[in-house]
Design brief:
- It is a single chain.
- This protein is an alpha+beta fold.
- The chain contains 8 helices and 18 strands.
- It folds into 2 domains: about 10-225, 3-Layer(aba) Sandwich (Aminopeptidase), CATH 3.40.630; about 245-345, Beta Barrel (OB fold (Dihydrolipoamide Acetyltransferase, E2P)).
- The protein starts with 8 loop residues before the first strand and ends in a 22-residue tail after the last helix.
- About 45% of the residues are buried.
Length: about 375
């Protein structure tokens, strides 16, 4: 990683300390030969310090991160005292324009890092971003949402076995810290290999900019800037914070229409009803139950399912009993309640379970 005293250049432009510069980084060309560029804003404090990048829309339809960066750019004062902040509101410009997760050739840009200068379109863009931004940064925050027809309760993901990453993840201030190196070729995994401590934030749905997710994202970025001494201020702490080393997907057993009994961020007990699956005539077919005590990390927002399709992503904390007791006790926290309530508006939650006639109880339905 670069020493904080060396000159900083991006896209061939030198950005002095104490200045802000908007840059268009060329990453490809159109059929006409015209340049395709990524919009980037570089903010430099007057004092030396670390370099942090914040990126969004590596998956082109994941827009919440775009909203977070816009708010950081335009609505939220960022009196940067030290270091360098790089804001990239749209990384996958092709997917962004087509409202698609993928590149035009159906490749996943977030499986293409660190890329190659003479590889596929995705690989070339990944290479350019990696060389121009990631290798020049000490830290990174990569903003994501759930995949199509799903939503995620805000959580931070990273290789928590790496001390620098773990401390940075904790500083962001999400309630849930999910351990994982990330898939091969993902931005965060390859960046950490290169010495840049990157965390991924998963929050909300694709193709939306959700107000409470924006609040959580902006709050987290500011927390990280304060943690790195790039800004002054007091961080906003979450009501609880727990490390997640294990999670499981609860999947549909039969085709039908779901009636949900839980919402994103909700704490559930072993055996608690997650959803009732009903037929097209409204007759209950089976009930999906939680296989362990945990927290609803994510869930489908699409009520229709076929057998095997994912319904609920359940995070299982370490030391579940004591941790869950603390979580129950802290649910009056305002920020927690607000975002949980807003995300729950995307699913219809019913407390009432329907009777399932003539079917044995299935204790292992995941």
């Amino acid at each position: 990683m670069p020493a904080p005293t060396q000159r900083f250049t991006l896209g061939g432009q030198r950005i002095p300390r104490g200045t802000t510069r908007d840059i268009r980084l060329k990453v490809s060309e159109r059929y006409t030969g015209d340049a395709i560029t990524l919009p980037i804003r570089v903010i430099r404090g007057r004092k030396p310090g670390p370099t942090l990048f914040v990126s969004a829309a590596v998956h082109g339809e994941e827009l919440n991160g775009v909203g977070v960066i816009h708010q950081l750019m335009f609505d939220t004062p960022l009196p940067l005292n030290a270091g360098t902040l790089i804001l990239i509101p749209v990384v996958n410009i092709f997917g962004f324009e087509n409202q698609s997760r993928y590149m035009p050739d159906r490749r996943d840009l977030n499986r293409s890092f660190p890329g190659k200068p003479n590889g596929s379109l995705a690989s070339r863009i990944a290479h350019q971003v990696f060389q121009e931004i990631i290798t020049k940064s000490d830290y990174g925050i990569d903003l994501h949402t759930a995949a199509g027809s799903r939503t995620n309760f805000p959580n931070v993901r990273g290789d928590l076995n790496v001390t620098k990453v773990r401390r940075f993840a904790r500083a962001f201030g999400c309630e849930l810290m999910v351990h994982g190196r990330g898939p091969e070729g993902s931005l965060r995994r390859e960046a950490v290999k290169a010495g840049c401590a990157v965390i991924t934030i998963e929050a909300g749905e694709p193709l939306k900019i959700e107000p409470r997710v924006l609040e959580a994202g902006v709050r987290g970025v500011r927390n990280c800037l304060i943690h790195l001494d790039m800004m002054t201020g007091k961080p906003v702490d979450p009501p609880y914070q727990v490390r997640i080393d294990r999670s499981t997907w609860i999947r549909a057993e039969v085709g039908g229409i779901l009636r949900f009994h839980v919402a994103p961020g909700e704490v559930v007990e072993t055996g608690q009803a997650i959803a009732t699956n009903v037929s097209v005539y409204g007759e209950a077919q089976n009930i999906l139950h939680a296989p362990a005590a945990g927290i609803v990390l994510g869930m489908t927002t699409l009520p229709t399912v076929k057998p095997g399709e994912p319904v609920c992503h359940l995070a299982i904390p370490k030391g579940a009993t004591k941790t869950l007791q603390r979580i129950f006790a802290s649910k009056q926290h305002k920020n927690y309640q607000q975002i949980q309530k807003d995300l729950a508006t995307n699913v219809t939650v019913s407390e009432q379970e329907l009777d399932v006639p003539n079917l044995p109880q299935d204790d292992d339905n995941t």
